[in-house]
Write a structure and sequence with these properties.
The chain has 174 residues and is mostly helical. It has a single domain, classed as Helix Hairpins (Orthogonal Bundle). It has 3 helices and no strands. α2 runs antiparallel to α3. The radius of gyration is 38 Å and the shape is rod-shaped. The chain starts with a helix and ends with a helix. 0% of the residues are buried. Keywords: Coiled coil.
Length: 174
């Protein structure tokens, strides 16, 4: 049977076909290996980011606990000052002590007012810090979820690439 001229022009020997196929497979596996290495590098970077986010969350919790304890201490001081003011008012009876009492009451009121303002300011700071902490924690959780999702996707890509490389390798074996 005669082959047409166009068939003869595009025919190559089987041995040459095998060599070219193997070369293409080696080139593809080198490219795939580089991509796999890059993906593994990205995965490691993502893991580092997750660890850093976790550390930040722990530090924020510690600051929150410290501020809450300080706020409780100030509340206790205000309570003691109010009780002290009540006790002092009951003890003083005479008119000569009345002036001293008035001055003392004025000073106590100033001190109390100062502590109440500090207390209110601290409560506002604690509220703001708690809100910031919750927002940051929420963002970090969202980042952590996104990073974990990316890791899963990258692991899936690596798995599929390895399967593809194995398939190419199997197909190119003589």
């Amino acid at each position: 049977m005669k082959s047409s001229p166009s068939t003869r022009l595009h025919s190559i020997p089987y041995s040459q076909y095998v060599i070219e196929s193997q070369q293409a497979a080696v080139h593809n596996s080198n490219s795939s290996a580089q991509q796999d290495a890059l993906i593994l590098f990205v995965i490691e970077q993502l893991k580092t980011q997750v660890v850093n986010c976790t550390k930040i969350n722990l530090e924020n919790k510690s600051v929150n606990d410290t501020l809450t304890a300080e706020l409780e201490r100030y509340k206790e001081q205000v309570k003691v000052l109010k009780e002290g003011q009540n006790v002092d008012l009951k003890r003083k009876d005479n008119v000569s002590d009345s002036c001293a009492q008035s001055v003392e009451i004025g000073l106590l009121k100033q001190t109390l007012s100062k502590y109440l303002k500090e207390n209110e300011s601290l409560m506002q700071k604690v509220t703001l810090l708690k809100n910031d902490f919750q927002k940051e924690e929420s963002r970090n959780i969202d980042r952590e979820i996104a990073l974990e999702k990316q890791i899963k996707e990258l692991n899936n890509i690596v798995f599929k690439r390895n399967q593809s490389a194995q398939t190419v390798h199997m197909l190119t074996k003589p």
